[in-house]
Amino acid sequence: MAIGDEFFDQNPDSPLTHFVFKLDELKAHLSDARSALSNHSGEELKTKAHDLGRLDSLSTQSTEQDAQQYLEELVNQLDVLIPLVEKEFEPISKRLELELSYGHISFDLLIYYFKKGGKYHYESWGEKLAFVLDGTSMDSSFRILNINGHGMMWDGHEYVHDTRVVDIPRYSGTKALSDLQCKIMQDDVHNELTERGRLYAAVSGVHFKSYDGRRVVIDENGYCGRDPESSRDYDDYVPPRSNRYRATPPPVPGYGDARPDSPYAGDNSGQKSLEFPEDQLYLLPVKVHGFDIRDKTWETIDVRKLEEIHFDEHAWDHLVLNKATKALIKGLVNVTKTTNATGEVFSDVITGKGGGMIALLHGPPGTGKTLTAEAVAEHLKRPLYVLSSLELSTTPATLEKKLGDVLRLATTWDAVVLIDEADVFLEQRSLHELERNALVSVALRVLEYHRGVLFLTTNRIQAFDEAFLSRFSIAVKYPELDVDARLTIWRKFFELAGCELWGGSGQPGDGRQSPDEFVKLEGQEPQCYVSLADLKELAAKPFNGRTIKNLVRTAQALAMSSDEPLSLEHVKVVVEAQEKFLTEFAKIKL
Predict the structure, then answer these.
(1) Of 78, 96, 157, 450, which is most buried with the most CB atoms under 10 A?
(2) What class is the 315-477 domain?
(3) For the AAA+ ATPase domain, which residue ranges apply (predicted)?
(4) Rounded Cα distance, 24 and 15, in Å
(5) What is the pTM of this model?
(6) In this structure, are residues 348 and 354 in contact, taking their beta carbons and an 8 Å threshold?
């Protein structure tokens, strides 16, 4: 193929002045051809002729003389073509220079203004996006200039090139450069986008973060996998003309398949961020996709609003549970962070089975079962994925898919999973309920291969199928709260509400309180005072832990509505209302 054939094949109707886009390339070819004629001979000369367009120069029939003749003709033709192109382009060049000196440009000059390989940016949905220009073209009506370039993005597995297209409709007269949809990259914008890109690169892979006060898991691969038909649908951010490709040009070398099996190491750092070339950070976008752990929804997230999570360091201390049982649970969940020599979580002797911790928590409502899972997640600094039995299907096929999908995500995220009220698929099998038997079998199979931390809660342990017993790493019974346990819970919730507790018969500050009856709120000014005697009176009432939490929260809301600090009087009003409701409810049941 001769020099320039490709250009003419792709642009058959282009004027000679459009050859200016290839001028630098032509000059380089001319220099190479002259150098080859001066410095090479024999096979080397034939190789140079091949590289410069004489594709048959390496065949056995081709001679050194053929190669020399081709290169001499190439030099002669380029010696004519290059000055001709420069002469033809000179009026356009002067006109372009004049218009640019005034900061304006005509539509027909845009194809010469935007240069291949240049750095540009445009606005998409109110955000700047940068790209390297790959080329320009006119649409079939010659009324729209298509500017084609590429940026970079993380696709869940690797950094890939991201096609970016800007369309500029034809306009009359001239337009200010500052009003163009696409602008040349200036240093201040480049620096801004580089810093933004640094934030984007920092959350490539899987990361557990805080976003607008909510906890989210950043996971592009998880987002893409949620629905194959829309796995890369960014219509909420990138214009429809934009698309992705991975073959041309290729992914950034050295950045593929870098995800470890376990993205966490028991802290909030998440997966280690993959290194990304400093000089390309400006090409990265501003949006990533993350999963809202509480609402269980995928969201488009601005990387500038992501923050580190402030975990509750005292969550484990708030758990009212037997000390030995707490120590056992803590020890078992800590073991799930241990890895063997191959870097995999310790697992069953059969490859792929188990390796995690499945705990059954059973007992009456409000005794601390859910709080245990929450405390473990806070202790491990991991996401907590709460799954209600209502979210799981009662048909075997659907249950297997739903539960399997959740546990796969949880394994990728190293999340703690809580399946609340798991009775629906763990009940005893019987000879007469074939579908329920299938449901139990599916649950057994899925749970058996889970590698993470999983909690199951139930109020009906007596209905469980015995086959599950061997699957549990630990089963913990939560008894009805006694007076001492309720006292501890009341005390902790008052502490969290900012109340200082005092005892004895005196008043706060009179020196008559017993020292061991104080709870000091370090660094906090107490908003109210509650006596130990008051706490004992409240603890005598048969409320469970969840009810106590709700009572204190409601009392706080009552105080806020009155623009007053929380006091015991607010609590008493709420407690009285609750007792009245329970009395009426008991009468109705009778």
Answers:
(1) 450
(2) alpha beta
(3) 355-480
(4) 18
(5) 0.75
(6) yes
